[in-house]
Amino acid sequence: MSNESVPPTSVIAGARRLVVKVGSSLVTDEGRGIDHGAVALWAQQIVALHALGKEVILVSSGAIAEGMKRLGWAKRPSEIPELQAAAAVGQMGLAQAYETAFSAHGRHCAQILLTHADLANRQRYLNARSTLVTLLAHGVVPVINENDTVVTDEIKVGDNDTLGALVTNLVEADALIILTDQRGLYSADPRKDPSARLIADARADDASLAAMAGGAGSAIGKGGMLTKVLAARRAAQSGAHTVIASGREREVLLRLASGQCIGSQLRAGAGKLAARKQWMLDHLQTAGRVVVDAGAAHHLREGGASLLPVGVVDVLGEFERGDVIVVLDDQGREIARGLSNYASAEARLIRRAPTAQIEPILGFIEESELIHRDNMVLTQLAAG
Ligand code: GLU
Q1: Using one digit for the tens of pLDDT, what is the confidence trace for 178-195?
Q2: Contact in structure between 321 and 342 (CB atoms under 8 Å)
Q3: Which CATH class is domain 17-271?
Q4: Relative to the CA of 237, which of 62, 202, 274, 383 has its CA 20 to 30 Å away?
Q5: For domain 283-383, is the CATH number 2.30.130.10?
Q6: Which atom of ligand 1 sits closest to the CA of residue 148?
Q7: Which residues, judged by CB distance below 6 Å to any ligand atom, belong to the binding site of ligand 1?
Q8: Ligand 1 atom at minimal distance to the Cα of residue 161
Q9: DSSP secondary structure string for all residues of 314-369
């Protein structure tokens, strides 16, 4: 990592497909209702990016903040139905604002509301992906938000930084731009530490970034700097770079596209995961977990082996055949996730059993592996 040797060219210059996330505090002008001037400027820049041959998907927060304003609520409600009601009211405002801003340029935009469940189901994941790609092919700007009105804890993504990263993975975008009300990621909290330096350039998987990002966010949005750093790490898994920059910078999107470095760029390393493996990683919430012994953990980590029932010491939670489950080592650390060949009830019966015992125990055999290595991805991320 370095902040002295600022790279001459922004990673955005070479990116063709971009996801741009705008946070609540920008969209809603610090809670005073939608900032139509700012929305108009983003729309203008996105239209200009199209002219440069780039495709753009917007992920926009602000529904709850705008709903609160429209309903005259000064304080963010703590009751879930009230938050969901505010989101329903505010989402109308968001849709209206983007529609007005893009139609001024003769462009269409499209509203897409997602929950985590939409991305956790392979069929719906593929559907969402085809719809988004089709919209892009027609020159339409998809505007995405979480479907706040219906989400429950079990199915929500929770914050739009993470949603932006999941969408980046979903459409295999080249880069994610997170626009926020701060200039980027600092080495320490600039509000508390005057010696804090802006991190201009780093690897997204640099472990020291999370410590710099700390925990606190603004009062109005959901994600703090830490969720942005984790979002960058997630985006990097499908090979996408992330830039965290101030949405208040003049022409920030166009200047980034012209190669200027603004804010913090968190670069992806080489190598994209195959789409199917990416889908497994995108499961923030998983139904079940299995704990494996040290030998199995070693074979998975080092050898890329399949997971056999004999290596499983414990089966936690309930899952069906075909569900994505998490594999933990005996210290509780996540090693991998993958598609289970057996339901949890069956897995409990055959845990610790050598392959030859599976059929006598169950009366049938689906596969000799609990998770085949082709259906498994090794994970570094503490998900969520
Ligand atoms: N989906 C929420 C909204 O539109 C915002 C979540 C976030 O700020 O990350 O109000």
Answers
A1: 999 999 999 988 778 888
A2: yes
A3: alpha beta
A4: 62
A5: yes
A6: 1
A7: 23-24, 61-65, 87, 145-146, 148, 159-160, 221-223
A8: 9
A9: EEEE---TT-EEEEE-TTS-EEEEEE-SS-HHHHHHHTT--HHHHHHHHSS-S-S-
